[in-house]
UniProtKB/TrEMBL annotation:
Enzyme class label: hydrolase
Positions of the Phospholipase/carboxylesterase/thioesterase domain: 24-212
Family: Belongs to the AB hydrolase superfamily. AB hydrolase 2 family.
Record lineage: Bacteria, Bacillati, Actinomycetota, Actinomycetes, Micrococcales
Sample GO molecular function, one term: carboxylesterase activity
Gene behind the chain: estB_3
Keywords attached to this entry: Hydrolase
Name of the protein: Carboxylesterase 2
Xref: InterPro entries: AB_hydrolase_fold, LYPA1-2/EST-like, PLipase/COase/thioEstase
EC number, UniProt record: 3.1.1.1
Amino acid sequence: MSDALILDAHAVLWSGDRDAVAGRPLLLLLHGYGADERDLLGLSAYFPEEFTVASLAAPLAPPWPMPGRSWYPIDGLDGRNPAHVTAAAQAVIDWVDAHAADAASVGLLGFSQGGAVSLQALRLQPERFAFVVNLSGYATPGDLPGDAALAEVKPPVFWGRGTADDVIPEFVIEHSTTWLPEHVDLSGRVYPGLTHSVSEAEIADVRVFLEKQLERA
């Protein structure tokens, strides 16, 4: 993937006034594989109202007949290549620099692929993002230049996943379980019986986490 990815600014959906970013905490939503910018926006009703919420559209189209968008390929011999995750994360950073540079703070909430990209963006620029919420996602294997700085900063990360999730490969779950506590201030929960999805209990936990981030600001 030699060409830089660019997110479609016109596809971004906002929970309120898109011009009300300046001076306010911003929460970016990154959907999963085969979904789109509409998928997670409904969750914003359960989040603290202090946040301006923007739901981004991933830059790629998955192979037919899969609907929606994708942040990086997962099919073929080059599927789940860490470089693809990094390229998607850089695209998120570029969008923030172009459209939300005046936000008081920026947090990321991603589901599945979106969770992996959120963590990768945090690794690329540990000082840029206030926190990450990683739902049914993972930390991408491999080293990045910012990992040492990340381990020094240890920004807060919430990781939620279900015991019945059979989508995310076990080896990346094992990697994430070891890697995350060494690099971030990790909190979260494993939800019995939850599949590759989000539950009411998980969203309630996410709200508590977000409220704590507002207190820290």
